[in-house]
Write a structure and sequence with these properties.
homodimer, 271 residues, alpha/beta, Carbamate kinase, 8-stranded mixed β-sheet, 8 helices, 34% helix
């Protein structure tokens, strides 16, 4: 089976000119089949603010009303995605920008209002708005773009964190979840490695100490790390996605620095 | 040779909910291979205004400084494009959104400042900014997406008026020119019909009279219509693109109402 690398890169990396350039270099020189999944939350917050639209987050997730949906559709699908595509093309990578709506690659449904535990421990009913929870990904269509075939050139998908509901609506979908969805969908045709990269060297025992990277986490140690408060905040949904991927056929999941996506460094997720 | 329809639809149609819905219905039910090329200038002007960015036009063309480039990248590549893609998917059309940067489909170079005749007849040096004049279109890659092949599903490209320069920069490119570029690039593999559709029934002898559609225009009558002032403004670059397409291998060019793209109505362009 051919190998493929699915790289998820966070907003903080792609929204800074210098780190975006480094990431593009790292990703462009990575050999073999590959897919890039990106975020863009900071740009969305910035553009929303310029438009007089307030960004409201609950548990690290964006409340997406109709105005905010317009913003994320513009920013993720247009501004961030096309900038990455053009930068990769300049490096000779045959990038193609995609959302879940394009070729119906990832379909979702609008999330129902649900009970959420707030930071202060209280429970509250939250309507996340136009947020999509993934129902189905079309791995074959993605694979058909990725693989060269009969003169059809191989492409490198650059996936924005947007899905659609099949009824004409774009929905905002968490980029970590998008990456896990893409990785799982590709397992039928590829031996998949999923790498979550960001501006830290991995999951750290001490957030202040870059030398404290935890080399591997399994379900047991994950429970302990959560109980001890070492893993918290946005790292929890990321790790939940990582464990979900590993138990759904993805061969290897790594959390690492964006400069280390070609190296064997960072935190490896084990069953 | 297989037939293909390249439909260019103006911003005024796609930016109005009701007319967009009608267009989507017309386009979705159109049989055979097809491509949709869209504008989005009014949305760009609206979002730019909300961001405090002034839209400056010279001869119907947008001056695209760095801020405006961000706006058009977001609006054309994200907001307008993904809305159309999701709406077509809801009708069972396997739409895929593209800019010229995606799969390197259309490459351009930044327009040098040039002398332009202003509305008052004076000449002025104008720097259009990040505007791309097309150098090359990759018809084979477009055709590879359009044609089903060995289990790779046929896709319907939805093209936004953005190109790239191969050096990492997105450039703003006129949507009528994009449509002509796409149509010409597809002539190697298809018998191409290019249809410019908008909210009028065709090129009209009297702008106020919908019954005054000119059934056909050739180069001779075009010169006369221009001299008489019957054809003016934004219709001139559109017709220039139409004649350029016809003399470059496109089989048929029609200018018609967006409700008539499946009918044999409107103005036909002849050599």
């Amino acid at each position: 089976m051919d190998k493929i690398n699915v790289i998820k890169v966070g907003g903080a990396v792609v929204e800074n000119e210098a780190s975006l350039k480094e990431l593009i270099n790292q990703f462009a020189t990575m050999p073999g089949y590959k897919v890039l999944v990106h975020g863009g939350g900071r740009s969305a917050t910035r553009i929303a603010a310029q438009l007089g639209i307030e960004s409201r987050m609950v548990g690290g997730r964006r409340i997406t009303d109709e105005d905010m949906l317009q913003v994320v559709t513009m920013v993720y699908g247009g501004l961030v995605n096309k900038r990455i595509v053009a930068a990769l093309q300049a490096k000779g990578v045959n990038a193609i920008g995609l959302t879940g709506a394009d070729m119906d690659i990832i379909r979702s449904h609008k999330r129902e209002p649900k009970m959420v535990t707030m930071d202060d421990g209280t429970q509250e009913m939250v309507d996340f708005g136009f947020v999509g929870d993934v129902d189905h990904a079309n791995g074959q269509r993605l694979a058909s773009l990725v693989k060269a075939k009969d003169g059809i050139e191989a492409a490198v998908p650059v996936v924005a964190p947007l899905t659609h509901d099949g009824m004409g609506n774009i929905l905002n979908t968490n980029a970590d979840t998008m990456a896990a969805t893409v990785a799982k969908a590709l397992t039928e045709e590829f031996d998949v490695t999923l790498t979550y990269c960001f501006e830290k060297p991995g999951v750290m025992a001490d957030a202040e100490d870059d030398d404290s990277v935890i080399p591997s986490i399994n379900t047991e140690s994950y429970a302990r790390l959560k109980a001890d408060g070492i893993v918290s905040g946005g790292m929890i949904p990321k790790l939940d996605n990582a464990f979900d991927s590993i138990s759904s056929g993805v061969k290897r999941v790594v959390i690492t620095h964006f400069m280390d996506i070609q190296a064997s460094m960072g935190t490896v997720i084990e069953k």
